[in-house]
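Anyone else keep sequences and structure tokens together like this?

Example one:
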Amino acid sequence: MSKILVTAKQAGSVNALVEPVKELMKRGHDVVVYATGNEAEAKGFGLFNAGINKSPDYNSVLDGVDLLISGLSGTDTPDSQFIRTANRMKIPSIGVNDQNTNYAKRFSSLEDLPSAISLMDGSCLSTMLSQLETELGAEASKRAVVIGWTALDRYAAIRNGFSSSDRERLIKKLGEYSGSKEGIFFHATQNVKVNGDSNFFDYELKVTEKVFQMASDLGKALTVKPHPREEAGITKNFAERFGHAFLPPEACSTLDLILLSDSVTAGRSTCLTEACLLDKNTGGILPEIRDEELIGYPPVQINAIPYTQRWSEISDILEKITSANKQINAKLAENRKRFSVDGKASERLASLAEKIIS
């Protein structure tokens, strides 16, 4: 049995390590989880977390450890300090990436490189090489291993486990809200004020109105489910105005509705990630959103789904993802394979860990 230290600061890194922790524990390893972020960032570790320490004694924490598995939150974070200390102590390490960007902020020198770098897919390697200085990029690429999206493993089981009986149960539950004869075209709204930001609210409201209007012009009846924190009535009024079916937030979970749907559209929402992973025709409605803001939406970033950053192209996205054309649907399905999960990324990471310490 090996002693493995798992540590991360930022929430994204934490989420990428939770399932690997479970897998390593299942395999009988002594896993110590050590969070260095705030309570919100560390929350994902749950009961596995041994405690939060923002200024750890790195040498002491690493003493007696056979392997370090760390997030890659940045060179100025404890994640990188743990990796640098492990390198000095001759302890092997795995750095687990969770976003395909900002590699220069994760690795600024050879001392920052872990023994192995876990990447989500092949596109990450080319991005890493393009963002790092030549010598550093060459060495990093030698240590890179494509593992997959460890934070998203569960979606494979959700997708594969949704049966025809589950579908019938949901249709019966939703009744009149369960779509038109053409299909269930779900649009997710989020007309909320984030931290009192009226600009965010005004933008989302404009997106909602444009989507509803253009769908109506195309003769497409949407099924609309608002964000749970939306003010009552706003989205419902828009839906009624343009002839779309309004589904109350409490009617079902958003995940259930995605599973039931034939197509899903959304703006700046994790629904884009979920719908793509659940193999639904998915469209990103992102007018005026800058390229650098698309980082948080992997299926958009790697062109696994159609999306638009222009108001004038919203109808094109709606028409494409609700199309009955077999060739169009086959192409959409093929593109979604660029961003998919098989549910085994955490197993692959655990196997890599065992290979390194064997």
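And example two:
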Amino acid sequence: MNALLDRFRAVRCYLAEQFEHGRREVVAAGAGDTLVMMDGVGGAMFGPLLVRRALRTAGFSACTVIFDWHRSFRGDIFSDLMMLRRNRLQALRAVRRIREIRRNFPQTRIHLIGFSGGAGVAAFTAEKLPACGLVDTLILFAPALSPRYNLSAALRHVRRCYAGISARDTVLLGLGTGIFGTIDRVRGPAAGQTGFLKPVGATGDDEAAYAKLRQLRWSPEFRRDRHHGGHTAWAGQTFLQRNLPALLRDRPSYPCHEGWFDAPPRA
């Protein structure tokens, strides 16, 4: 019941944010921190708008940039999920946008945040960044990537990466990706449910890159922040207000697993 009530609260906050502030691409340009945000498939901008609302409520000053990588009309979830080549091209467009931000605001700290399918596009973007240091933090909430997707290229181009995972995310990242596939086109449970596992053929260099990955695994204590382990709970207002600023400062409120998992952790 509490989880259901929190979903209703999230929807209410999302609608209120749209009504009160709209869905402008950029808010508060030139702040000390810049968040480039990518929503999940369908393009409703649920995650990015809730991030804006949470940071405003928490009093955390940041520029927020919504990067719209989606294919066409709102709600076209299948095209967004299945068009891998196009999604990688959108990642190149995102790289150009990030470089433009860096040119215009050389002192800002840039953080790249993706939700669900958008976490996959965020990872594709990080892979194509020109050098480590352009992006401080890569945050992948409920990533709809395959568990053994090799993140090493993305990790080499950021200072740190957090992945929010939950074994309770069984509908969208278990059943859903088992039927329709992940955004990198692998059928089966996604990394957002199982955690990122050791990639096939991983090298010593890959393992060194994975030292930048901190996997934030859901546990019952997350309930104190109204996070009940579901897919959309990573965008819950209480969770974001209390935890996102800490992640951006590399001071996570919960224990993290460093690197890959050798096997999916037990629920």
